[in-house]
Amino acid sequence: MKRLPLLLLSGLAVAAVAACPGKKPETPAPVSAGPDADSLARAQKAHDDSMKAAQDEADRRAREDAERRQKTADSLAGIGRTTDAVKTILGTMIHFDYDKAIIRGGDAAVLDQKVAILQANPPLRIRISGHCDERGSDEYNLALGNRRATAAKQYLVSHGIDASRVETVSYGEERPIDPGHNEEAWAKNRRDEVDILAGGDALKQP
Amino acid sequence: MKPVGLLAIVVAVYPSSRLVAQDTSAVDRGVRIGILYRPGVRPGIVILTGRAPALDSVRTIMARDIDYSDRFELITLPGSDSIRLAAPSPALGPRPAAGTGTGKTSGGAASAGGLNYPLYQALGADFAVAVTPAGADSVVVTVHDVAGGAVRREVRSRLPPLTDPGFRMAVHRLSDRVVEATLGAPGIAATRVLFVMDGKAYVIDQDGADRRLVSSTDHAAMSPAWAGDGRRFSYMEFWQGHGRLFVQDVASGKRAPVATTGQALDFTPAFSPDGKTLAFSRAIEEGTDIYTVNIKDGCCLQRLTVGRFYDNLSPTYSPDGQRIAFVSTRAGLPQIYVMAADGTDQQLFAPFDYGATGSSNAPEWSPDGQAVAFHRDVAGTLQVFVLDVRTRAVRQLTSVGRNEDPTWAPDSRHMAFVSDRSGYRQLWIIDLETGRIRPLLQQSGARLPAWSPRLPETAPSTP
Predict the structure, then answer these.
(1) pLDDT tens for residues B165-182?
(2) How far apart (Å, rounded) are the C-alpha atoms in residues B433 and B442?
(3) Among A102, A132, A137, which would you mutate to test the B interface (most chain B Cβ atoms within 10 Å of its Cβ)?
(4) Which of A59, B116, B127, B182 is 20 to 30 A off residue B226, Cα-Cα?
């Protein structure tokens, strides 16, 4: 039952790729006789082309994905193979702009590492907590922190992690890591933290 | 005619009596003679000193309550000895003016009932209040109408001993009786303010005394809110990152988790005026939205808003229970909206200039229904605003420092809020009529205040 939405999602993704007309190569207009057979062949060719383009696109994405994973894995390998090292990477925080819950470009790589770790450790379950700086309203910040935690979870799920493995919570501005009242402290406090809920006793390197 | 010569002496003896009164008094700092209720001038009131030292703390608390009501000029007298030089002590026994016809005598140091009315009138008092013991466990509060030269009202009340936890609230109730007897207006002395400090919820008397811890100590608490009857309150606690709502009984201190909450992040509870429904914000992965739950029967969770791509939070009921003001980010930044109590007819409440007005949050509907207080981001800091419900005009109330999370007193003219105007964040109280501002709590870190309704009596006070 739990896998059903995922299957549906991946089905949709394939359909979306197949339907994508953007990269379709221009078919040169052939000069020949037998309009019926000709148009049939043209249609067939166009169809084949678009299918091929879609396939190529999918292959290319898979390749890029794999390359990126490999890069991630390589970087992880460089850090060390202990559970603690993996935990450190898993626990790397991501940060946000003021009153925003959008994953910054630079933080995508940080989340990619978490995807890799989660994929390498199927029993692993995590909790993402969203946090805010002290400038906003205390209660509004609970909603904002919730958006920040959810944004990270959505990234993980869209990269293949089962949603049931990731819990989200928000602490608003209640748990600052820097008690200062300046931009430096605020920037640190606008963050997502990751905690291990289960399956973190022995973590494998991706 | 007034005995001018005597007055001159009296003024000479007490030259600075009016100067002791608060500095926000409207115009007249001199001696007033016989004229009541001039526009812009608040009536003068004096708490008479007495011979029973046991009641000094009663008088002190009462004087502060009456001062904090911001409805009077509180006249402070010198020590009781010096006053007895000029007038017999009121503790000797003021006499009710019950049809004796002697309420007004012309001149003379000692007037009717043992109270020197002309003297107090010369001091600027329109009312004088005497507190005298009546038996072992009761007091009599006598309210004199100084200009009328008669006793306005006598209130006999049981008073718990000084060490009793109910002592202060009993005195606050007496203060409210004085306000009622003099001006016919209900007071706010018998009220308390809930607030959060260091992750715990506390309650404190409106005069800043008697702070008590009310939440548990093992979970961080937020967003306390009173029920309309003053017998219960609700607040949120973090449990493993979830927000759980509790409803707690004031008298017993016992609390119960709100049914249907606990697995999500539930926060900002708000009681419906009839006390049967709790509205609150719930944050799930889809976003934050407003729900209601029937707390009488512990059932019937209802979702009032469906944001999906924006958040809805911080509900506050109108006193008639028909409408809910709330915060929504539907236009980008959070602003103040209003809807019917069933979630229909959602519309903008506090107007704003798109792209110019800062975030608006933390709305609270006033007990008289005419206004909604909230805070708004102005040039990078927060200021308290008031929305006029009828005209939808918005007025900025504060401008010094950062000011946030306003909460109304039951008289709808006082408001508690958080401000860093003194250098650190603490609780303040403002009177909207006079503009007078006073700290409620000197300690730093207090926030999210919630002012109670007039609190019900837990024990009978009439002997």
Answers:
(1) 899 999 999 999 999 999
(2) 23
(3) A137
(4) B182
